[in-house]
Amino acid sequence: MRTLVCDRPGDIAISDRPRPSPGPGQVLVRIRRAGVCGTDLHIFEGSHPFLEYPRVIGHELSGEVAETGPGCAIAVGQQVYVIPYLACGVCIACRRGKTNCCQRIAVLGVHIDGGMADYVCVPEANVAPADGITFDQAAMIEFLAIGAHAIRRATPRKDDRILVVGAGPIGIGCLLFGKLKGGSVTALDFRQDRLDFCRDQLGVDHAISAGPNASETLSALTSGDFFDIVIDATGNVKSMMAGLNYVAHGGTYVLVSVVRDTICFADPEFHKRETSLLGSRNATPEDFAIVLEAMREGLVPTEALVTHRVSLDEAPGSFPVWIKPETGVIKALIEI
Description:
Blueprint: E1 2-8, E2 11-16, E3 26-36, H1 38-45, E4 55-56, E5 60-68, E6 79-82, E7 85-86, H2 92-95, E8 106-107, E9 119-123, E10 127-129, H3 135-139, H4 141-154, E11 161-165, H5 169-180, E12 184-189, H6 192-202, E13 206-209, H7 214-221, E14 227-232, H8 237-242, E15 247-255, H9 267-272, E16 276-279, H10 285-296, H11 302-305, E17 306-311, H12 315-322, E18 331-335
Parallel strand pairs: 11-12, 11-14, 12-13, 14-15, 15-16, 17-18
Antiparallel strand pairs: 1-2, 1-4, 3-5, 3-9, 3-18, 5-6, 6-10, 7-8
């Protein structure tokens, strides 16, 4: 079968590997769509903090069940989305239902080989029916679920002011589900094209350009109160440290981004706000289900999110293009 392998930074190609066979409790999924995530682009660039090469990339996946191993109940032919977080099931996080932050988590396409391939073999628990939506939509559930999880972590109340710093795909998920929760949402980003997208397609309340005057603009926008919830989705250390300044007194700061560096804040600023500081990692099956239902109800502008589309064979030549900001990628899909 064909697989998309990144052998080293900047070196990505189609490679032929044996088709896997499902063991007990496993299913073989015939992949039909794979979304390209910022993680995949970082792997290509060589800037991902938790990766060993070579790696078959891809974790935003949809397809259909091609074969099942002993003990599986799901039917062959069932359209599914893939939950790419393989959890151990026994650690303290798993025992508490937080499989998204399992102590021994293995994420497809990051810690282990992923699903930009003709087939992928996963535990039955890591697939779920995707009835009522398209393969395109099903492949977008994962990145939106990360945003939905961040919002759920923040427990917003109706009319809370929510600032999302970084309007890439993960930030878009945060903005979308923040708005669906009844919040007043503001996007902050350097890129005008992303701000325009958030305004035109997501209907955000405000889209603010980041820069030297951003703090003054955000202060004026909130009459000096700043925001009940601030979510950083930039993956930028300086941004993550600066975001505390945008949190209202008594507010919540959620870090979705992952970086290798140490993040630090001025303790007086942190304490005088009595800030609730939260990490948000991956998503749980509940978050995937929330996104699926929102798609079924027509609440997610999935057609607008897909800005680029190629076949699997065309994908290696597309990665050097997609990493350029001027390409304007929101979500690229690979058809398999």
